[in-house]
Amino acid sequence: MRLSLANLSRLPADIRRPAYDVAAAQVGVVHLGVGAFHRAHQAVYLDDCLARGAAGWAVCGASLRSPDTSEALDPQDGLYTLAVRSGTGDDLRVIGSLRRLLVAPRDPSTLLAAMCDPNVRIVTLTVTEKGYCHDPATGTLDEAHPDIIADLANPAVPRSAPGFLVEALARRRAAGVAPFTVLCCDNLPANGETVARVVARFAALRDPDLGRWVEAEVAFPCTMVDRIVPATTDADRAMVAGRLGMEDAWPVMAEPFTQWVVEDRFPAGRPPLEDVGAELVADVRPYELMKLRLLNGSHSTLAYLGYLAGKETIAETMAEPAFQRLVARLQDEEVTSTVPAPPGADLGAYKRALRERFANPALKHRTWQIAMDGSQKLPQRLLSPIRDRLAAGAPIGFLALGVAGWMRYVSGTDEKGSAIDVRDPLAARFKAVAETAGPDADRLAEGLLAVREVFGADLPTDPRFTGAVKAALGRLYAEGAAASVDAATRG
Ligand code: CS2
């Protein structure tokens, strides 16, 4: 038996299910990048909106790459299970907001048609940092990106997120349909502004007039999204099937915590998100800095150094006293001074909660998963706070240790001499640098510091930064990650 609309009534009583007529819900949101994070975050808020009677805000979810999600969920009428995992057990709930699934590479025109539906008033995105085809150091469109070149040459059959957004916006404009609001839900700095810049530039390259129209007419509110969502494993699928008494080909696993802070700028209308726990604010920036720097900055630091120390998951890494000290000192002594507290927020409580969230043993969040795409993540997570600290003449030792951990990781060889499966759009360049440098820490650091897309033009010329990173990388090679973290956090 498989999860489906017809089988909903066969679920055991302890499994929550959509409290509304799923089949009657209308699509009002197209989502690009329908992966686990979207399904454990925005889709849940929208499921709650639907349950409160906002029937026009169901989701059509598209994948820009693999057909996996659609193949798993189509036979289930788009239904899937959200398992919320804490120390006290797993709370299971079936989500119904995903009413339609599309696979962009298979059928780009159907996705474009869905984006042009006048009932669709918001296009949300979780395509990961690299999905915007931008330069991470400057936040501008990477005009040499192969997908951007392809989408400019053939705009009616896009591949990239900017390509789909601009083609759909241009078609709506031509048809006299008001533009949708573009809601980026990825962990980019100033995510709405960054995506606005990238999309307007792409549009201008197609046609300067279209570029001006996008700038003037399309809203790109900023958001801060937060929920830890590890990749689903076969053991998770088996657990869910056992509880449901039926198969779910792709449930999603999440922590209890969830937060969505949204800039309230939706000219075409929006669902009543404030009724379902989201925070609608005028300025997302302080929330974003708090989250990107304290949560994601610590996460990346734990991921690289934890992986090198032989740790499979973040919770395992956080079980080590030295790593607990690292997170505490990184956050308290370096990062907090770069984070303006959002209105009413208590940063001390936020950090304590974060450390508990990282330590949640029910979440098997792999260090390897978080280590992915470091070139796209480092700038906003570690390098921006480093810039702020340097400008203030303040020490950066723990932040630099995180950067050195990344360097050691992307060298592609672990402390036992085994290969690391480095996933990153710039992985081939890192590999070439590592091959030239061999085991020489200074040469590796110099080669990687020259990657302008990550470090920009300023940091590689600041000896306070390069000195701290080289010293930390030298110790990582000499002593290993576990001993380096231990030594760096004592005293
Ligand atoms: C993580 C994030 O994979 C990563 O890079 O740091 O996915 C993190 O779990 C989320 O941003 C939490 O909201």
Automatic annotation (TrEMBL):
Domain Mannitol dehydrogenase C-terminal: 283-476
Gene3D superfamilies attached to this UniProt entry: N-(1-d-carboxylethyl)-l-norvaline Dehydrogenase, domain 2, NAD(P)-binding Rossmann-like Domain
Organism domain of life: Bacteria
Chain ranges passing through the membrane: none
InterPro entries the UniProt entry points to: 6-PGluconate_DH-like_C_sf, 6PGD_dom2, Mannitol_DH, Mannitol_DH/Oxidoreductase, Mannitol_DH_C, Mannitol_DH_CS, Mannitol_DH_N, NAD(P)-bd_dom_sf
SUPFAM superfamilies: 6-phosphogluconate dehydrogenase C-terminal domain-like, NAD(P)-binding Rossmann-fold domains
Sorted UniProt keywords: NAD, Oxidoreductase
GO annotation, biological process: mannitol metabolic process
Residue span(s) of domain Mannitol dehydrogenase N-terminal: 28-274
PROSITE patterns for the chain: MANNITOL_DHGENASE
Gene Ontology molecular function terms on file: oxidoreductase activity, acting on the CH-OH group of donors, NAD or NADP as acceptor
Protein name: Mannitol dehydrogenase
Organism whose genome encodes this protein: Azorhizobium caulinodans (strain ATCC 43989 / DSM 5975 / JCM 20966 / LMG 6465 / NBRC 14845 / NCIMB 13405 / ORS 571)
